[in-house]
Amino acid sequence: MRELSFVSRGSRPVAALTTLTRLLSSSSIESRPQTPLTCAAEPDLRVRPRPYLLHCGSASRQSGRHGWPANAGRQTAGIWSKIQRRTNGYKSGNICPNLAKPPMRIVVRSKIHKATITDANLDYIGSITIDKDLLEKADLWPGEKVLVASNTSGARLETYIIEGEAGTGCICINGAAAHLIQPGEEVIIMAFAVTDEPIKPTFILVDQNNRFLKYL
């Protein structure tokens, strides 16, 4: 490497003009191939973005520390998600892979058919009291939500179960529901489940005294 020599002229140092002229006129510079200026190539979207761009966990990474804009991580993550949807996401014509999963459905799980209301207690805190034996036969739990439909009046209401004394055949409507369904009315008591697969429901038929007759 050539060393430039400086001479003092007044108070300002100046470079030796002859040395500079010799350097600028050197054949090594003139013979050097000229590289045309081009725009930066577009990023190859097939390459997975760097982890620190996908997971910007600190302020220093989000502030363009690596020479990227502050929102580069979000932009790159968005591009990558679009690529995944366009390549691996589509299956059997579905827009989203999650749509390939079976939908969740609300299906009837248990039913007590043609039960007779034995009592209605307006002063009691809500619910329906059901004979323990019937709960076991119909696979119902205390506290479980049920839909009660009256075959007599057509009224329908939702409430929860309280376990009654076994063998008594009691089915008592409590609380505000006593305004809608009265003693002596014939009702159907149904419970439901949320599932993505078919289930085998438990239906039972009772007589006028709420005694178990058979499975339906």
Average pLDDT across residues? 75
Strand content: 25-35%
Shape: elongated
The largest sheet has its strands arranged as 4-8-5-7-6-9-3-10-11
Computed over alpha carbons, the radius of gyration is: 41 Å
Largest sheet: 9 strands, mixed
| Low-confidence blocks of residues | 1-8, 10-16, 37-41, 51-64
Give me the number of helical elements: 6
How many separate structural domains?
2
In total, the number of strands is 11
Helix fraction, binned, reads: 10-25%
How do the SSEs run, as a string of H and E?
EEHHHHHEEEHEEEEEE
C-alpha end-to-end distance? 101 Å
Question: At the third CATH level, what is the topology name of the largest domain?
Answer: Barwin-like endoglucanases
Structure description:
The structure is a single chain. The chain is an alpha/beta fold and 216 residues long. It folds into 2 domains: 51-99, no CATH class; 105-215, Beta Barrel (Barwin-like endoglucanases), CATH 2.40.40. The chain has helices at residues 17-24, 27-30, 51-54, 59-62, 72-89, 132-138, and strands at residues 6-9, 12-15, 105-116, 119-121, 128-131, 145-150, 156-164, 171-174, 186-195, 202-206, 212-215. The chain is elongated.
